[in-house]
Design a protein that fits this description.
The protein has 116 residues and is mainly alpha-helical. It is elongated, with a radius of gyration of 14 Å.
Length: 116
């Protein structure tokens, strides 16, 4: 992730997706982890993709909907990170990603609440 905290949500979620890909690369190569890796990558990279889609929303309702989806993906990513850190990756390798994921969830929740 970039030095310090980026305040642009698009940059933060892009950096977060890069970190998710790095974590996925650390997982052992076996059939069980292949499934978990796919789940982590799908949800972790989808956060930023949905925020990009929200940026192009035509209506306020569409914007809010994309942000809700981004928040759901962030929550799912948090789950996968916790699961992996308890079993397949040392927790100290994912702790900063867990913290960032929680912060993204909070930011998205604030945006959703403000838009609604």
């Amino acid at each position: 992730m970039t030095e310090g905290k980026a305040y642009d949500l698009k940059i933060r979620t892009f950096d977060f997706a890069q970190e998710i890909l790095n974590i996925a690369d650390e997982l052992p190569q076996n059939s069980r982890c292949d499934v978990l890796r796919r789940q982590l990558i799908k949800s972790g990279t989808s956060i930023g993709a949905n925020i990009e889609e929200a940026d192009g929303a035509i209506t306020k309702k569409d914007f809010a909907n994309k942000m809700v989806i981004a928040r759901k993906e962030a929550r799912e990513t948090y789950y996968w990170l916790r699961l992996l850190s308890e079993r397949y990756i040392k927790k100290d390798k994912v702790v900063s990603s867990l913290v960032e994921c929680k912060e993204l969830i909070s930011i998205l929740s604030a945006i959703i609440n403000k838009v609604r």
